[in-house]
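Reopening closed ticket. The problem is back. First fold of the pair:
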Amino acid sequence: MKATRILLTGASSPSGMALLSALQSQADTAVSAVSRQRQNKMSGIDWLQADFSTAGVLAGLMKSADRLVHMAGLPLLAAELKELKSSHIRQIIAFSTSSVLTKKYSPNRVESELIQSIARAEQQLLTFCESRNISLSIIRPTLIWGAGRDRNVSRIARWAASQRIFPSYRGLSGLRQPVHVEDLASLVIRLMQTETKGRQVFVAAGGEILNYRQMVSRIYATLAKKPVFLPLPAWIVDRAVHWPTSIQPTLVMLQRTRLDMVFERNPLLDELDWHARGFDPDQQALGL
């Protein structure tokens, strides 16, 4: 990688911390890491405490950077694109989510509006970078795991730690491809090392396809447990949209456990020689 100065937003997120750890071994790389909360010092990392959602903050942060790695929520970046016009940024790597494909028609209004805002932000960023000839990679990760702080796999792990019974809907047959935070970090580094040109949007999936029931069973296995799957009446889950909003998100989530969420591998990942690991968690990776 050429000598470079990277601005990383969302640095205290699981993916952000994994990337910072990997970047510490990269020569000729200066990193400014942005977080809302004060963080412990890391060798070679310049921590900046700032609220990225505050208008105008981005402009000051970008003055000396030539690459932006954005992990702080795509709509936040889209809202500040005008601040990029006076910067020297030549490459942007931004994290979106594969949910823009899998939750596009969510029956939950709040979730649907969030997904729509992310999809709009993707398009705004693509249009902006195309007009200014900035290299752009928008990564859509699948289920993220490995740091013990994600909202899906670790959430199941916390349930498994206290409950033997796990609710089941139509056999939990939907396929998944969980991706490890360290593999996402290595993908970002490979994108910077090759200085990938042009604009692309692609899914970054884990190296193994397994169904939801298998995924849950492996999480329980880290605790030397076997789950007792409790089938829920289909009519309860199928009518999720008609239930109170307090339980609707949980029922909608259960509905998706029977849907396949797998993706074809983008040829760019082969060009980068990027290969993610399978799903083989231990307690540390699950935050237990």
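Second fold of the pair, where the issue appears:
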Amino acid sequence: MTTAQTEQNHGNSQTATQTTTEEGYRRELGSRQIQMIAIGGALGTGLFYGSSNAIASIGPSLIACYAAGGIIIYFVMRALGEMLTYRPTSGSFADHAREFLGPFAGFTTGWSYWALWTAVCMAEVTAAGAYINYWWPAIPTWATAAVALVVLFATNLVSVKLFGELEFWFSAIKVVAIVALIVIGVGVLTFGFSTAGDSASVSHLWKDGGFAPHGAWQSMIAMQGVIFAYGGIELIGITAGEAKNPKESIRKAINSVPVRIGIFYLGALIVLLSVFSWTQYTRESAPSCRSSPRLASPVRPES
């Protein structure tokens, strides 16, 4: 075989791997889809729903917990990114564990991750049902959860391109919601409109019992919930086996992790805890549900 034929065959094999991976998956996820999957994966019930319990437990010190957790997550994602650029694979960290630590490590990592998401998925769809039931009480929680589960299952069966497109738009909704919350909250703090304007102040971060009203140790205990809230950010790695240009798109997604954490987690919490005192949040209600009607209402609700 001549040199020209060898180079041509090598070029053809590279072209084939651009559309189909060694596992048989098609590379149809674009950079914009992976970026939004990375954002949407990190923005879930932990922030939208579960943070109410943490706020009621430890107050404004939750901001420091999210900052510390974000630093840890960033270094973990950097390490994952190094392995993914070394060998992009749909098995992600399970395949890497198998390669570097042996078959048993790969087996336990893969199945434990599957068990994790089986449980988390049920929590996610249940939280979706709780949100819909909050705004439309006539719709039972189980009905929304069932519909969400069926839609997710059907989407995964059709194609990765459709899944990526839906993830893009659903993640965009979450991003718009948080950005709108931050912008409106900053407006309330600056101009004092809405029923929350009279009492809104950044001094809420330290004047109602201090930044850590229950002590630093109590704040440390809440770290498990903080790390859970960051769960899903590792989905960047799962996309490697179906990304059109995994090395480039995954690099961009991981490098943007600090910006996402700073805006969507720390920014949202600072605004929420400045507009309302942490003592006004309860364990039973989500902060976004509690804040939205009061920010939008021109008339002070009866207490």
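Update: turned out to be a display glitch only; the data is intact. Residues 27-296 form a domain with the Amino acid/polyamine transporter I fold (CATH 1.20.1740.10). The chain has one domain: 27-296. Please close again.
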